[in-house]
């Protein structure tokens, strides 16, 4: 992620053009847009009667679901690694006598 300046890029999501402005690179913003577009397209194929607003809300909910599941997985991994981290800290604080 670039720091200190804003970038502007045009994106396409589900057939709609948008202009994004942010600190992330244009490539990153386009990658995000592509991801959202993929989700909306897949949802549209499974639910052809939904309008764009309904698809956007479902895409947001699916993305939030993915985020929260990944967050729990990350927190579980951190907990699993915590004993090893503490062991290494203790080892550096109390080195064995030589």
Detailed description of the structure:
The protein is of the alpha+beta class and 98 residues long. The chain has one domain (7-93). The chain has helices at residues 26-46, 52-93; strands spanning 7-13, 16-22. The chain has a two-stranded antiparallel sheet. A hairpin with a 2-residue loop joins strand 1 (7-13) and strand 2. The radius of gyration is 22 Å and the shape is elongated.
Task: Write a brief structural summary.
This protein has 98 residues and is α+β, with helices and mostly antiparallel strands. The protein is built from 2 helices and 2 strands. It has one domain (7-93).
Percent of residues in beta strands? 5-15%
Radius of gyration: 22 Å
> Which regions have little confidence, pLDDT < 50, spanning 5+ residues?
none
Mean pLDDT: 91
- Main-sheet strand order equals 1-2
Main sheet: strands, sense, barrel: 2 strands, antiparallel
How far do the termini sit from each other? 46 Å
Multimeric organization: single chain
Annotation, overall tally of beta strands:
2
Judged by helices, strands and strand pairing, the structural class is alpha+beta
- SSE order: EEHH
Q: Which geometry do the CA atoms define? A: elongated
User: How much helix is in the residues?
Assistant: 55-70%
Number of helices: 2
How many domains make up the coordinates? 1
